[in-house]
Amino acid sequence: MKLVITGSLGNISQPLTEILIARGHHITVISSDPKKQTAIEALGASAAIGSIADVDFLTTKFQGADAVYAMIPLSFTEPDLGEYLRRIAKNYVQALNTTKVRRVVVMSGWVADLIRSENVENEFNGLKAPITFMRPGSFYTNFYQSIDLIKGRGLMGKLLTLRYSGLWALLTGKSGLLMGNCGGDDRIIFVSPKDIAEAVAEELVLMPEQNTIRYVGSEELTCNEAAGIIGSAVGKPWLKWVLLSDKAMFQGLKMAKVPEKLAETLVEMQAAIHSGKPLENFHRNSPKMGKVKLADFAKEFAQVYHQK
């Protein structure tokens, strides 16, 4: 099959490309970075350098494809995440309908149906081809964003004290804390990008008659259990995941200079996870868990952690 993969050589798209090439498919990888062309071609794929914000570019590259994996990278610089997601989704729909691609797999998230203002799935309602919306849990790779916090540099690079609703969170090098408005004993579905890639690879070659939703997970843990696994891997077995109030989390994101509307969205997403509703939806769909456990990823995380 002729398949188009968006997402450049990211955490999902690179292993996805490798899987599909090994299975004999003809792969085109879309990347906005010209420097990635050599690496893409080294995998045995064709490189298409351009922007998913350019609908004419997408239309050209989707021409003749049997199926497309469509993802929208999160942007922490866009002031309005929802508007950005809707804009790019509309580009996909226009290009896919124009080229009459027969199969589409869209990357979504396991809280997608709970965050209506940011639900990118709604923007694909006008797509004529059958879609599978992938709803993975919390990526293992998200822990990379917390390296400074784990090392004790905090959000501002020094001792940070947050006090809301009687809660003090002291972030020092010795303390070893993660933080969020989901945390503590909240149960979360964590997932390896490699397991997501395997699931996407399976979906791309299917031709369902109707739209479908597929949840993807690798391991279910409490936040503190996950923190303990990551902490043990980097020599901080006491690592904890502190549960903050929504207000405290929002203020922390503002201190980190995250755009206000984006900060509101991130708080809403974590609040949804804290509610337990995404976990209920995941269990209701009873997906098969992936193979990569957090302890496996923690070894890779530790290597990156000690290099910084």
TrEMBL record:
InterPro entries: Ergot_Alk_Oxidoreductase (IPR051604), NAD(P)-bd_dom (IPR016040), NAD(P)-bd_dom_sf (IPR036291). Residues 7-113 form the NAD(P)-binding domain. This is NAD(P)H-binding protein.
